[in-house]
Amino acid sequence: MRRGIIRGIAAVGAVALLGLGTACSNEREGSSSDKGDEAKGFAKNSLVGVALPAKTSENWVLAGDLFTSGLKEAGFKADVQYAGASTTVADQQAQISSMVTKGAKVIVIGATDAAQLSTQVAQAKEAGATVIAYDRLITNTKDVDYYIAFDNFKVGQLQGQALIDGMKAKKPKGPWKIELFSGSPDDNNSKVFFDGAMEVLKPLIDKGDIVVGSGQTEIKQTATQGWKAENAQQRMDSLLTSTYSGSKKLDGVLSPNDTLARAIITSVKGAGKTVPVVTGQDSEAESVKSIMAGIQYSTINKDTRKLVAETVNMVKAIQKGDKPQINDTKSYDNGSKVVPSYLLPPVIVTKENAAEAYANDPKLSQLTK
Ligand code: BGC
Question: Which CATH code for domain 9-144+304-344?
């Protein structure tokens, strides 16, 4: 199933972006990125920049701390920055430019807007830096060397399957009534998560076993701008008014992450209703508590400690002039190139396997006792 699926650029505007990307790449032919400049390596105590998006979920907060300590331990100087809460794109663009000016040899980027960084990564490549897209792909540019993330399509598939399993466990006979939520349209992951989930859900929707009450099945209709809890809560409020008045019941909600799952649950509770199954992602402490209490149904464990450690390993390899470890060379077409990727396996977590899933996480394992 995974074969040939291009998980890069969002379909919307893909043609336009592809056109742009081609023009860009022609201009930049023979640039430092094409010469494989990382083969040279660089001095060990050099600067490594890490540009992260706004702290829209706990994983980003954790990643910043881990990059600061992990890069220092590995002997690098670290410059770790977050985009601000409101002017995220401009902030991140300025932060990356400043890392380039300061002479960073590698720049790790968790993009706040996938398609708005081509100028900055071109600057980075011109200056001889290696660019790693972290967790979120950067689109519409040749100037991204590597991508490292959890397998986002698999995350979506696991979420879709958890929704089905959870609903079947609570109400053995369908049809089941659901609503769908997706992440921020400027994050390339949002479409990949949604496509993964829909690959699992669509056959049941087509058969009529699952009914999307509002009829809103297009990603555009389900989007949550900025991954903001208040936007998901507002959309759920209006869905409840338009579609679930009186005694009408909702069996499940596909939520792309934990922050939005809790917002959706708050909305449903506020309307005096319950929703038996809500999915999530990120293993945020509040959601793990909610899962243990039987409220939220599932989350995904994407251990940030592992992702950061593997990213630091990539940086170490590049520093030595070695090729970093890659395990996927086909899935992530960013509209200008297929970005060599290192993908880690995500794990689905429900109340049933939480203790096992978090056994080696001192903070989360406490919550499962
Ligand atoms: C990450 C998710 C996170 C979301 C919101 C996505 O790109 O992959 O783990 O929940 O951003 O911050």
Answer: 3.40.50.2300
